[in-house]
Amino acid sequence: MIDYQWTSTLIGLLIAGLILFLVRRDHLHGPYAIWWLVVAAMVVVLGAFPRLFDTVAPLFGVAYPPILAVVLGMGLLLIKMLTMDLERSRQERKLRRLTQRLAMLEALLEKERRNRPAQKEGGAGGNGDQVW
Fold first, then answer.
1. What does the angle CA 102 – CA 105 – CA 111 come to, to the nearest 5 degrees?
2. What region, left, alpha or beta, does residue 126 occupy, with left being phi > 0 and alpha being psi -120 to 50 degrees?
3. What is the mean pLDDT of residues 32-60?
């Protein structure tokens, strides 16, 4: 029978290996990879030294040490969700600005097209080529 410490340590190492594989394949980018590598390192450390909670929990006033792991896990999940929402907000703001710039450029091109009717019809001074 395998000790649960080895199982937890093995799970942490598998997570770290998976993260490195995803980074090498360019499926996971820098800041996200660092976050998940920290999580994998915590799983390895807490798996290798499960008595760590027994010594740390009384320092935080937690009477039942396994609850500290649950509270820390939930806290990390909340922080991860907050960072994901911040990143999504930043991407939406960037997308909105790019859309506005594209609309302004299209309006400017349309205005230029209206100001040059002779070129559009292939008249004098123009060769009839479109900018597009």
1. 145
2. beta
3. 86
